[in-house]
Amino acid sequence: MTLIAPSLLSADFADLKNEVKRLEEAQADMIHLDIMDGHFVPNLTFGAGVVRAVRPYTRLPFDVHLMVKNPDAFLTDFAKAGADIITVHAEACPHLDKTLAEIHRLGCKAGVSLNPSTSEDVLQYVLDKTDLVLVMCVNPGFGGQKFIPAQLKKIARIRKMIGEHKILLEVDGGINPLTAAEAVAAGADILVAGTAVFEGGAYAGNIAALRQN
Ligand code: DX5
Ligand code: ZN
User: Fold this and answer.
1) Which string of b and e fits 132-161 if b means at least 16 CB within 10 Å?
2) CA nearest to 57, candidates 26, 85, 16, 28
3) Tell me: the pLDDT tens digits for 144-175?
4) Which residues sit with their C-beta closer than 6 Å to ligand 1?
5) Catalytic-residue membership of 34
6) For the chain: N or C, fewer Cβ within 10 A?
7) How far is the CA of 165 from the centre of ligand 2 (A)?
């Protein structure tokens, strides 16, 4: 079954506590938290303090997507704040193997994210330390952007690379019911969606429309 991870980036920031409750009631499978630092990406969101503050209001796993320079400096903070999965960008990690080992040492699942222009080759030698691969289908920084179709080929290639490894394949950016179908056909297990989950306010219907099977 396809898993749906709504991104809090599109939530009402003044009401995050109730937003996570609503998403759980609407059958979301996990909560995707987009952390931006204004350096790795041209936007700012929130930090570990906000993650810690909303943690008590849902049982859903927290899928923390670090779009930050030098993510190693923040891993402990996000693990302590209640992250279940911590995903770092390969482009921000000169010692990716070591970073993934550190995420595991902190008791979290370790994810690797790739910008649209980054080749899947960087995954080759860290497959045994990776629990999740996150393929960005937009250039990260903002919600509401258009899905980049060239990423479908990358999703399919990573699906093949994963083979028998226990690695979840997640896609993020520009996901709507149409692109969701294409991403799942290419091999995606988890769909992150901000705009498509929150628009119109009917979260349950929106989530059901994204779930492909
Ligand atoms: C983009 C973020 C995404 C974003 C998705 O930088 O990583 O998680 O919130 O938003 P939509 O679904 O609106 O493209
Ligand atoms: Zn994200």
Assistant:
1) bbbbbbbebbebeeebbeebbebbbbbbee
2) 16
3) 999 999 999 999 999 999 999 999 999 999 99
4) 7, 9-10, 32, 34, 65, 138, 140-145, 172-175, 192-196
5) yes
6) C
7) 23
